[in-house]
Design goal:
By secondary structure, the chain is of the alpha/beta class. The chain folds into 3 domains: 109 residues, Cobalt-precorrin-4 Transmethylase, domain 1 (3-Layer(aba) Sandwich); 84 residues, Rossmann fold (3-Layer(aba) Sandwich); 84 residues, 4-hydroxy-3-methylbut-2-enyl diphosphate reductase, catalytic domain (Cobalt-precorrin-4 Transmethylase, domain 1, 3-Layer(aba) Sandwich), CATH 3.40.1010. The strands form 3 sheets. A 5-stranded parallel sheet has the order 10-9-11-1-12, sandwiched between helices. The chain is flat, with a radius of gyration of 21 Å. The chain binds iron/sulfur cluster. The site of iron/sulfur cluster has 15 residues, from helix 1, helix 4 and helix 7. Iron/sulfur cluster binds next to helix 1, helix 4 and helix 7.
Length: 304
Amino acid sequence: MGKKVLLASPRGFCMGVNQAIKMLEETISQESGTIYVRKEIVHNVALVEHFKSLGAVIVDEVDDVPEGCAVVFSAHGVSPSVREKANDRNLKVIDTTCPLVTKVHNEAIRFAEQGYAIILIGETGHKEVTGVMGEAPDNIRFIHDEKDIDGLAGINSSKVAWLSQTTLNVDETQKIVKHLREKFPLIQGPPKSDICYATRNRQLAVRNIASECDLFVIIGSKNSSNTKRLAEVARETDALEVMQIDEPEELDYLDFALLSTIGVTSGVSVENNQLERVVSYLRKKGYTHVEERVAVKENTTNPI
Ligand code: SF4
């Protein structure tokens, strides 16, 4: 049997990242002064460098933006305090927050207005988590994993709800929610999963082919939550080597003689040309048979 590459599908860009990139491109071409971007627009080193080369200046906080200038908020969303500060500094805001992140903000606001304690499941220190927590800091308790549930004290168990970050591991989150239901039988949740369609579909696509692969290559930057989850899902499969890379040269040290089938996917912030560079590298290593494996047809017309 010859060497082959299995391409997981769906993979790559999602609706929110597409929107954020388009909005930043339009802003750069239309605005005359320097464009400031609060935090990385999306978690992709190459794309961030590309926008820097076009003149965008990445800042940590709106305090770092000169008064009256244009600032772009990233796809991960911001807390109300950031919006207030931007307003105080008279900044022109271009908000690229993904609508699916806004949905989680709105759920937090709704539950908080009804007097619920909210347990937010997420990745410690992630921008999206910080943004959602800022909507109702007095109501929201953050947890990262099942272990954190034991530390949840002083919550009125008749008025409690859970929400989650959009880019978590679907199976892990289900386990955490099951554990939460055992502790708080009356707990409410979001009407529809907060984990977005793109995250769910890309994890499903990895699971669909992982057991057939000797190596799974996950393309995406190390600080991308979505990409880390794809690597996690691939690792759940026995005896599989998994590598998370930005560029194909990171595969140079591998002994390809030992690898017959290689799975490839890319996170939501990864452009198609980045994936193509990896596939063409593998072709040169003898993986001339490249097969697309579709786990689910993606419908982005109404993903909320
Ligand atoms: S991963 Fe999901 S929530 Fe995040 S930007 Fe993409 S579609 Fe939106």
